[in-house]
């Protein structure tokens, strides 16, 4: 064994970079042999991916509602003009293709005795006279009728029977009437529909390849005795130790709050026992030529992939959207085909993994992007580790809500050839469509997902936000999309000047909101008197309108004269009993009330600086702010909780103003003689502290 160690590396490398994963464990997947399991005939435990989909459909969603069959996978094709397709040849080709791929006739059932979800390959002997899949024929005349048919293929939960292995169906849709010549022609459609627990998107390429070959030649040649089956993969997967991946994920998610929702701007919350409806809304926008060009330029100049750049952008957006949440964990799907042997297998390989970013808001964006890239590369290296095993490392987590916020990056071509397939000599076009529940609603299995789309033909980008209407109003999602657009233009339109700015300086405030804030902050008014201090102006209003209402809250109100009386009572108390001197900072921690106004004006009248503290802040933050002001006194009132330590000097406003106070000329002269000028500090306010320690 070679024990030579580079001492320089030990000195320079940060502790966070050290790992206990051995070299053999880092490459543990390369050492696993995937081969036909001779001791397994037709039944084995379900794979982790199958179990996740099977459980998800039963637990997270309500199976009794027709709009939540989110794991139906319909692919819709229309014959092009002057092309025809033989129904009999298609039927024969489908039988050959389904027979070749066991996943297309595999059942899933829960074995109570074993306490396991099991999969079983259904054979012709099991079915006897019944088919391994179904072929349905219908006709349509109007677009409305066609949309209803397509809609039902996606949303209807009882199209498949997983317990019987009915996981694939072919729906033939004729225009106007079912053809008597058994030929499909222009305007007729084909729908190949699969259940996701036995089929993923890469499987479609295998399916179409074999279907075309079977249709053209009338046969499919393969060795069923030696061919690696999905069933074999599931058995081997269950037996793998995956020690290296286990250690990686345990370290990557240390102290991560996987069961806490990101504080997105929800309009409402879902109850613990409340099912998802599967209903969502979708908002999309294009980058346009200039923004797309700058996005590409940023990626190339920083040597980073487009996907990692998009993901880093998403993290920054979530940081801003959650008002400074720095520990961001989202879920993404990975294809799961990490070995070449899996490329020829039809089945469900998709794994869901957590992607965590502990964001440093002081980093410039290009450095944050590098951090995200390094983290993503490591996560993808161990993405074969099943989600169930990741969650088993955190037994106290009852609901992994991080999966509800997701991300995807899609590269595609808009050329028509990309959406065309051949079956024999017939050319069919794939019809891309989104399933709508109504005019304004789509199917959605996530609470919030951002999709970056890269259209390779014009080399431009677009974004789509899908959000659950269980939690968001449509208007809220529209505003969120506008905020993302605003941030993207800040980041990339003039990115050379933004390069070294820390990410916390990015803004998602919309232009109309900026205008509103500027107008609200434009408080300069011309006053009729020559006096310029706030409390002087207040006394001037008292003299001018002593009996008019000065302040009103719910059923309570005070006239200017009454308000001045209480302000004078509290002010004299501050001067006489607490010996407050001009220029001191006085904190006030009260709820919205008349007492708040009395306290504020009293602090100004004695020449002190007013510092508001929020009752919503935790005690630690309140104490830190109080200590930072070096204030001797905190004004409180009756409903203020006891959040300050006993050594903090507090004064109950309500207790003071209830006392009967007899004014004398000497008392009032004392107030009049307080030296206050327009240059005196009137208030002290702190930042939120989202980028570090709150600053005054």
TrEMBL record:
Protein name according to UniProt: Uncharacterized protein
Cellular component, GO annotation: cytosol; enterobactin synthetase complex
Pfam family, one: Condensation
TM segment ranges: none
One MF term in the entry's GO annotations: phosphopantetheine binding
Keywords attached to this entry: Phosphopantetheine, Phosphoprotein
Superkingdom in the source lineage: Eukaryota
GO terms classed as biological process: amino acid activation for nonribosomal peptide biosynthetic process; enterobactin biosynthetic process
Residue ranges constituting the Condensation domain according to the UniProt record: 42-499
Domain AMP-dependent synthetase/ligase: from-to ranges: 541-696
